[in-house]
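Internal ticket #5521
Category: modeling
Description: The requester needs a full-assembly model to guide mutagenesis choices. All entity lines are attached below as received. Residue total reported by intake: 455.
Assigned to: D.W.
Attached entities:
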Amino acid sequence: MQSAKLQQQDPDVFGLIESEEQKQQNKLSMIPSENFASPAVRAALGSVFVNKYAEGYAGKRYYEGNQFTDKLELLCIERMKQVFNLPADWHVNVQPLAGANANLAVYNSLLKPGDTILSMYLPDGGHLSHGWSFPEKEEGGLEAGADDQVYLGGSRKVSIVSKIFNVVQYKVDPKTELFDYAEIRKIAQQYKPQMIISGGTSYPREINYVELASIAKEVGALYMSDVAHEAGLIAAGANKSPVGLADVVTFTTHKTLRGPRGAAIMCRGDLAEKIDFGVFPGLQGGPFEHTIAALTVCLKEAMEPGFKVYAHQVVKNAQRLALGFVKKGYKVVSGGTDKHLVLLDMRKQGFSGRNPAKALDRAGIILNRNSVPHETGSPMNPSGIRMGSPVLTTRGMKEPEMDMIVEWFDRVIKLVAPFANLKTAEFMEATKGITELDDIAAEVKALCAKFPLEF
Ligand SMILES: Cc1ncc(COP(=O)(O)O)c(C=O)c1O
């Protein structure tokens, strides 16, 4: 529907879309799991494929009328193979509706209830879909100060994955904030998992896929690499690829890959049948063919030379942000980044990430509070701030703009530091009169106007 028709039909939703557009245009979106999909990707997403039911796979559908969905899905798979340079015997499934579903489908395909999964500790940057539980007494808080590099969880099973499987988690080394692969090897030998998982939401360094594949092999486990965050960087060669090392690779399509919200699974050919069955009929109903249409467009974009340049600039921009923060005396987790995200531990400033993130939003910089290694806060009030460069880079911003952002960030933190430990409602009240935050928002808006987004 064209926007004039939408405006006429539903002015409420039209108004909300307009407001969201204005916000995205005038503020800096720095949540690392977000990006800005192109008009072509969004046109395909809003196409008539939204109307089609296509349970099953190409040539084996349960409903008629799938001539074009079959062609579309096969084209998507073909492009995926090219973009990720898949070995000839690897297989792709583009039907998972989201990243969490893709992961669940893999477990559904390859594990039995009660099997052991060894995955990354959630507060160190792992993902809920790799399992999460905690002891009753923690009341939603994290394990304050535990030095152990292994986490066995507790009776409060937060994620369905922890309800079905026995989840053991490995942490980063508390000093280096990096993975210690010798330690992970020992944990794997002790707990003998059926599956080892890597990948997460806030580990700023590249993962050693060679080491994890060899650990998995040694203990007879399958290795699933979740590259939700890094997929675009891997497609462009800006980060290393787990393809051919891991048994299964899962990822979301809307982060660094810059496609629609969705996900995909790539796997060794001998696992193909199990994986497909685990997605449908094992977990999902009809695939979102409009999403697959948009993903197919995004993969064409990812094959263009400009995408390689983009992905390398994403990394350069994040590294420039990290360097800027180090120079200003912030504690950058692990000392820097290899990819699109930067994690700051705000305990050095004497407070958590929650209130500063709110002040930064008011100043036009949208990012998120986040847990950090050796977390002592709670999930609602964690110690860190996480930010990323994908959207900034899509807008065409480069190193000089990253330096400006570090300056603005630092100004905001200094303005609100005296109030940062208040309860959030009190913080909002106490900082209401700091009009310099609004001045910064105006400066941010002026920069955004020089790097407009194409709606
Ligand atoms: C590593 C990782 N896996 C899985 C997911 C889940 O993706 P979705 O939100 O599409 O379910 C995310 C989302 O942030 C993620 O970062």
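Resolution: model delivered.
Comment from assignee: The CA atoms of residues 337 and 377 lie 23 Å apart.
Ticket closed.
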